[in-house]
Amino acid sequence: MALAFDEYGRPFIIIKEQEQKTRLRGLDAQKANISAGRSVARILRTSLGPKGMDKMLSSPDGDVTITNDGATILEQMDVDNQIAKLMVELSRSQDYEIGDGTTGVVVMAGSLLEQAEKLLERGIHPIRIAEGYELASRIAVEHLERIAHKFEFGENNIESLVQTCMTTLSSKIVNRCKRKLAEISVKAVLAVADLERKDVNLDLIKVDGKVGGKLEDTELIYGIVVDKDMSHPQMPKQIQDANIAILTCPFEPPKPKTKHKVDIDTVEKFETLRKQEQQYFDDMVQKCKDVGATLVICQWGFDDEANHLLMHRNLPAVRWVGGVELELIAIATGGRIVPRFQELTAEKLGKAGLVREKSFGTTKDRMLYIEHCANSRAVTIFIRGGQYIFGFCHSFVYHSSQPY
């Protein structure tokens, strides 16, 4: 294909082998479009239902995903045809609005297109076919409203929601332990839901996980999970009613802004310098103790001397916590991030009902659980299992929001 200009300067396109190119019109164009939509539906048809097969998808960079979720399959497919792209948008809209039925809606659309092709061959106009489908949709919705049953549920009566959630997980990879995962999903949604308004803020549900262990080890945490542990192995692993000091200042003596050089030529000078440095550490730890902090979470690290002093002063500490996690902890616990020790006050401490360190797996990985936070209803679903589970874990929790 090349671009040329006529004698008036108007551009036109020269297509190579133009005599072999054809433009479809009328019924042939409609059949070509229908064929593209049916091809997408045919790909997803084999993954529908409890006996549906999973699809193995390989991305250009070599990542492999195993799933039978329609939205995930279509999202990772390389689709060029414009009608096929509409089927992808249909699945994406279904996933955004409902959270389930992404495969079924594409298969149904493909079947409707297949029947529409037969009607087109009989000479029926496409607008008449579309009007017939809209009329059938209204009749189907009215019939569903007549035969529908209303199930009452509440915080202490979740069985109907669990059963509904289990039906959405029956064809998924996690089918073997769908009862437990359905209960976790429902409890997570109810923890963040406004039952009076029937509104669910799914952003308050964080899905996190670590490869390893069994899928049955998945648990629901009413709080935040941080991939850190206590800075000293002898610090307490569990703190009740924690007052958390959230710091972005390091436990170390201040460094001069200019270039400096210190000459130490006697033992007395070295002892004086060591005592001065120790006094800095002691003042920092004492400041945290004076405001009532029972846990220190620091963005930066601190050396062994500060760590040893924190342990002996019975002040548990966590170091090298990232800025994003630090902000999340501050929001959840109602605390303030403190940039300097001089600004630390009791009013800026965060509150949490329970902070505990948990180890799991054969490698004894350790993570910090911050639960029953004072200022947040956020929950975390912590998933364990093999690598293939994590291609699916971020979608199953949203299926349980369908009853709302």
Automatic annotation (TrEMBL):
Gene3D superfamilies per UniProt: GroEL, GroEL-like equatorial domain
GO CC terms of this entry: chaperonin-containing T-complex
Keywords: ATP-binding, Chaperone, Cytoplasm, Nucleotide-binding
InterPro entries on file: Chap_CCT_epsi, Chaperone_TCP-1, Chaperonin_TCP-1_CS, Cpn60/GroEL/TCP-1, GroEL-like_apical_dom_sf, GROEL-like_equatorial_sf, TCP-1-like_intermed_sf, TCP-1_chaperonin
Major place of residence: cytoplasm
A GO term for molecular function: ATP-dependent protein folding chaperone
Location of this chain's protein in the cell: Cytoplasm
Signal peptide span: none
Pfam families: Cpn60_TCP1
Function: Molecular chaperone; assists the folding of proteins upon ATP hydrolysis. Known to play a role, in vitro, in the folding of actin and tubulin.
Family: Belongs to the TCP-1 chaperonin family.
NCBIfam families recorded: chap_CCT_epsi (TIGR02343), thermosome_beta (NF041083)
Protein name stated in the entry: T-complex protein 1 subunit epsilon
Source species: Linum tenue
